[in-house]
Every structure is written in structure tokens, then in C-alpha cells.
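Usage

Read records sequentially. Each one opens with the input sequence:
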Amino acid sequence: MTVLDLFAGPGGWSQGLRGLGVREVGIEIDPAVCTTRAAAGHLTIRADVADYPTLPLRGKVSGLIGSAPCQPYSAAGLRAGNDDLPLCHQALNDLARRNDTRATLRDACTDARSLLVVEPLRYALDLHPEWVALEEVPAVLPVFEHTAHLLSAAGYSTWTGVLNAADFGLAQTRRRAFLMASRTRSALPPEPTHADGGTPDDLFGDGLTPWRTMGDVLGCPPGIVITRGNHTTGGSRFRTTGPSWAITGRARSWLLKVGNRPAATRRRLDQPAPTLLFGNARKDVSWIDSDGTPIRRLDVTEAAVLQGFPATYPWAGSRTKQFEQIGNAVPPLLATAVLRPLVPAVLEVAA
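and closes with the structure output:
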């Protein structure tokens, strides 16, 4: 029995499953992403999820994962998918009635990618996996609620809602919609392990750990700090990666800015990062000083670590492509948290 990952991406779900001792097979069409997955040791079928036949997979899939491209619905994009939501709901109803109208509805969409959010239902109804886990930007939650209703009619226990990755140990306040479904147990959301400021111990158990910060996972960003005191010139120079971290507070005043508008989100090193948005906004994710002076852009390794990947993760493709993969990936820590209540069903089948 196999866990199948639709729109597999560079390996966020894969890394999350690996933390549970489970491997999956991903379907992914982007060649650079496939190269990243191969270098990271994740199995991949290079194909278009919307065109891939389900018949050869029947009886072989125990778990189904899906994170359709979010660009039509993302706050960082044009949100053309919002105009296409009625067509998505129609496609879901048609699939539940075993009437495949995807081709016709796709032609009617403002953004053809909008309809990809219905693909997991097609696979679920055709393959009857024991469990399903889906992730998307919060704007897709109504589609997930509709999908959950149809899965419930097919015998699944379901849960839908929005989770904050910071509540599960990621140094980033990334909010994403999730759908969890199971045919063998009650689908329940994962229990948070962290909270803003933490919570105290009580009679019912240990309290929650405070949110992790960028400083916790990155340390001090590399660069040179100049301490000038009351002078405008001269001063001493220290590397921020060395003892100067204890000598000067200048490095601790660095902020991460996401966006190019006056109201762009700014976070200190002693806070979690905001949701990392790349793609066309890649150049607008940068370190600034406390007075707003630009220092440098966020680099690939920092972005990967803030998304929960190892610093040595083997990203492939151009620099722009690497940032795109990182920003689109499910954070592995969050993936593990969501999958942990579902995966034991897979292990029992395998045994």
C-alpha cells in the first residue's frame, strides 16, 4: 500500500512523512521540482495530476495527500481563483455524481489552475484511500468544506480548519487551510505544541512552549555590524556571527520585511517570521535595520530553514525557482503534526 502525494512539490509533505517513518510517491510536473525531490531521495512520478489516470492505482493507495497550486487564490497573486470558485463547487458536485465536467469547466475559468483544487476528490472517490490530508491557502477553505461534505457522504470522518504553523514549532506564523479525513478513525485536528508567549503548566499537563523565533533557528544573520556610539564615522567592526552578538545589540535590531509597501510586515529576530511569500515578491523579502535601512535580501538557506527544511536541503533550479519551491512547500513540521493522527492507519494496514 502506498501514500500518494498529489502536486508533490519539493518535499514538504515527504519530509513530514519521513519524520514518521513513512515514504510516499509524489506526482509532480515541474522538472526543477522533480530534480529537487530526486536529490532529497523522494520518489516521484513526473506527470500532470489532472491528466494522470487513477485506474492503475486502484487497490494500491492507502493515504492521499494534496496541495494544489495556490497561485490563483494566494494573497501574493491576482486571486483570479476567487472568481472561479463557483465553477470549482460545480466540478466537485459533478465528480461526486460521477460526471466528469472538468474539461468544460476549466475552459470557463479565469485561471485554468483554479480547478486543480478539485483533483483530490477525484482521486479519493476513485481510489478509496483510508485517509486524506489536504493543504491550501485559507481562501480555499470553502472548497475544502464542500469536499469534506462529499467525503463524509462516502464514509469518511472529516475535519476542516485553519492552522498556524507557529503553533507546531515553525518559526513562522504561516496560516493554512487543511482538510483531514479518515475511514478508520475520527478525524481530529492536531494538538498545538507551542503558543504565543507560551502557557503555564496546569493540573492537566505541561504548558505549551513559546513560539520559536527567527533568532532561535537562524542565530544571528551573517554580515558586518558597525558600532559608532555617538559618532557618525569610525567605530568598531564586528562580525555578527561571532562574539559581537553579545557585544552589540545592533544585530539584534535587524528586522525581516515582507512586501514593498509602507504597511509591509516587519518582524524582529526575536519573533517568528511572517508568512514567507516569494514568486514575484522574492525581491521584497529582505533584512532591514531598525530605522528601515536595507541590509540585504533573505537568502535561500535562511528561507529554507524558516520553512522548516534542513539548511543542506538540495534545492534545484535557478535562484528564483528555489525560492518559489520553498514558498510553496508545506512546512515539514506542520505536515508531521497533521499526518500523525492519520498515518497509524497506514502502518496497521502495512503490518
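Summary fields computed downstream for this record:
- The chain has a mean pLDDT of 87.
- The CA atoms of residues 286 and 297 lie 4 Å apart.
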